[in-house]
């Protein structure tokens, strides 16, 4: 089955700096890669996603890149703000039902 | 748009009792809903895939007789934890995939239900 690895597990950045989270996946059949932000005690919130026919996608301060050959994808957050502090999860989707395999998560702390 | 609700948000029950959790897609129809369990400081673990009008498909290691899933309509799925025990205490989260052309993989998550079994 699919295996998704996510690094780093924790990331501390100064407000205004950039944050990068990297994920690798094992199944070359995976074709959809969402990123979720989860605040304490809440459900995950979709922040950006990318499909296998696209190499890069950007939405304001958030961008995602995908390297299908190397089977890795990354989340980039620029100009970080304290409200960006949360746990971020990457995921890969496979199969006709689109089941998601999640990475272990990255705790991002943005200090003012 | 794409709002998913869960009820209740938190529940405390005694060991041996059953607890039902509802998951609703409020502004879209969903043929497929998913149920996840999340332990503190861990990732989301898929428990089962629920398709409207058919039996749920459970992940390996998840007891289907203990975690009963019913997906009776295109906007409602329920998870019943039967004969709950303290080790079932966890954060249960559902997600739903909109029934529409394009974006067929996007899952929207509910706010989660905190279950504590005493």
Structural features, described:
The complex is a heterodimer of chains A (112) and B (118). Chain A has 112 residues and is mostly beta strands. Chain A is built from no helices and eleven strands. The mean pLDDT of chain A is 94. Helices cover 0% and strands 58% of the residues of chain A. Chain A is globular and about 40 Å long. Chain A starts with a strand and ends with a strand. In chain A, a hairpin with a 2-residue loop joins strand 6 and strand 7. In chain B, strand 7 and strand 8 form a beta hairpin. Chains A and B meet through strand 4, strand 5 and strand 10 of A and strand 5, strand 9 and strand 10 of B.
Briefly say what this structure is.
With 112 residues, chain A is mainly β. Helix content of chain A is 0%, strand content 58%. In chain A, strand 6 and strand 7 form a beta hairpin.
Q: What percentage of amino acids of chain B are in beta strands? A: over 45%
Task: Give the total of beta strands of chain A.
Answer: 11
The coarse silhouette of chain B is globular
Number of strands of chain B: 11
Overall geometry of chain A comes to globular
Radius of gyration of chain A, rounded? 13 Å
Percent of residues in helices of chain B comes to under 10%
The N- and C-terminal alpha carbons of chain B lie at a distance of 37 Å
User: Oligomeric state of the chains?
Assistant: heterodimer
Largest interface: A-B, 23 and 24 residues
Low-pLDDT segments of chain A? none
Count the helices of chain A. How many? 0
Kindly state the mean pLDDT of chain B as a whole number? 92
Structure classification of chain B: mainly beta
Taken in chain order, the helices and strands of chain A follow as EEEEEEEEEEE
Average pLDDT of chain A: 94
């Amino acid at each position: 089955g699919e295996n998704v690895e996510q690094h780093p597990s924790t990331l501390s950045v100064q407000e205004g700096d950039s944050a990068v989270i990297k994920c690798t996946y094992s199944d070359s059949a995976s074709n959809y890669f969402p990123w979720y932000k989860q605040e304490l005690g809440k459900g995950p919130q979709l922040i950006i996603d990318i499909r296998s026919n696209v190499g890069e996608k950007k939405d304001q301060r958030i961008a995602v890149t995908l390297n299908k050959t190397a089977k890795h994808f990354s989340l980039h957050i620029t100009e970080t703000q304290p409200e960006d502090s949360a746990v971020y999860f990457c995921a890969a989707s496979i199969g006709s039902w689109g089941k998601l395999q999640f990475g272990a998560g990255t705790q991002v702390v943005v200090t003012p | 748009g794409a709002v998913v609700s869960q009820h209740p948000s938190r529940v405390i029950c005694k060991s041996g009792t059953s607890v039902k959790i509802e998951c609703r897609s409020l502004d879209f129809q969903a043929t497929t809903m998913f149920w996840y369990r999340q332990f503190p400081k861990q990732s989301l673990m898929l428990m089962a895939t629920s398709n409207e009008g058919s039996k749920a498909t459970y992940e390996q290691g998840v007891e289907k007789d203990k975690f009963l899933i019913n997906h009776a309509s295109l906007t409602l799925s329920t998870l019943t934890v039967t004969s709950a025990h303290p080790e079932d205490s966890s954060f249960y989260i559902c997600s739903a995939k909109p029934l529409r052309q394009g974006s067929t993989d996007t899952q929207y998550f509910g706010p989660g239900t905190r279950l504590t079994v005493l």
